[in-house]
Amino acid sequence: MNKDDQDHVFDDDKLKEECGVFAVFGHGDAATLTALGLHALQHRGQEATGIVSHDGTDFFAHRALGLVDKAFGDAETIIRLRGHAAIGHNRYATTGEGSVRNIQPLFADLSFGGFAIAHNGNLTNAHTLRMELVNKGALFQSTTDTEVILHLMAVSQKKAVQERLIDALARIEGAYSLVACCHDQVIGVRDPLGFRPLVLGRLGPAYILASETCALDIIGADFVRDIEPGEMVVIDEKGMRSTHPFAGRPSRFCVFEYIYFARPDSALDGRSVYESRKKIGAELAREAPCPDADVVVPVPDSGVPAAIGYAEASGLPFELGIIRNHYVGRTFIEPTDQIRHLGVKLKHNANRAYIEGKKIVLVDDSIVRGTTSKKIVEMLRAAGAKEVHMRISSPPTAHSCFYGIDTPSTTELLANRMNVSDIREYIGVDSLSYISIDGLYKAMGEAGRDSDNPAFCDACFTGDYPVALTDHTSNCSGSRVTDLRERVTRRT
Fold first, then answer.
1. Any binding-site annotation on 401?
2. CATH code matching the domain that covers 15-252, chosen among 3.40.190.10, 3.40.1130.10, 3.60.20.10, 1.20.1250.20
3. How far lies 8's CA from each of 12, 149, 335, in Å?
4. 19 flagged as catalytic
5. Which pTM value belongs to this model?
6. 460 labelled as ligand-binding?
7. Which CATH architecture has domain 272-465?
């Protein structure tokens, strides 16, 4: 069993969320608001969390492994995070080991003073830059790619903080939505292609930055707008200033945010996530109908909106034929071989009254390794399902992501080594259909996928990587880089 199986024995076989960021400027309870915002963004990272605050003179920090409520549930912890400015981060490791030294926000004392930064995304040339910096004498304190930005700022010849950050980011390749705090100001930046979300809000006179709008809702803040791809906003006591320091390019926002990652009650780039998932499900019903079925059943929870859309478009009844236990954690019980075998049953249970004797349309958002899908189908058949027809609200996930989503190696992705017919046989369903790539774009309001100028990043489906994978195609050494380079080699 690999480490991922050990760590996530009770988790769904899904791609893993990236990270979540949150920032406040101009509020006396900045740290409290940040903790609440991070709680709303918990789905984007459950490994670790941290907050750095600033009171105009000093910085204060608290970081911890685990969930937000555990890290910041003690009132004394929040009281120590003084100040009217704060930034926070929820981590799911896409680079760097899972340890305390990698918990963000990272902080450094640079020549101009203290600087804290939190990053959602993944830098595809971080190892190359890291080796260059190390060879020049840089001493790294973490193994996360985010620290490269701090070192690039440290050696920049620019004077102003914002200019140093721009200078550093000009050398960066990959995906980033980041927030930073320094000199009594908060900064937000989004990469030129806008892979990852970042939104701006207001709470009275205070400004808020967050990965998703659901984090604004929890503190009662008003949504103002999305931070644009390539935009930098600087917030201080004078207000907010916006610049676009990077050359404008067509956005390539991650389409998987709409399919799975973002919370359904969020709105990203002007689209409701919940409504988008319903539309994808409806398009899937048009592309892959199952007219003889009796009922549409989602794989909870992420498959629910698409299943609703499928049911509405097909005229079939929708039922919660699978009930999810939300209280099974990674350390619920010692994961012996016998308990691992029961893992899916501990997290999902068939609602037999709505399964027995029925022809089921089972709707899920994706199939990654296929292990959980296979066990859920077995569970439905054991509950008396007459037929099981699976419908997937994304195209086959056949390629690894290098832009901030933790995906298995390419060879572990079922769709990379099997065609649809083979996958159908492997997971044991009577029929299997995925939404087409053009159908996905149509559901998202596009005419189809423009191969010369696609509206989204869909590399995990198409293998079309819009930003260079420098680390993964170079001759760099290092186990992480070698592993990722092998993924691309295997793909091609």
1. yes
2. 3.60.20.10
3. 8, 30, 10
4. yes
5. 0.90
6. yes
7. 3-Layer(aba) Sandwich (3.40)
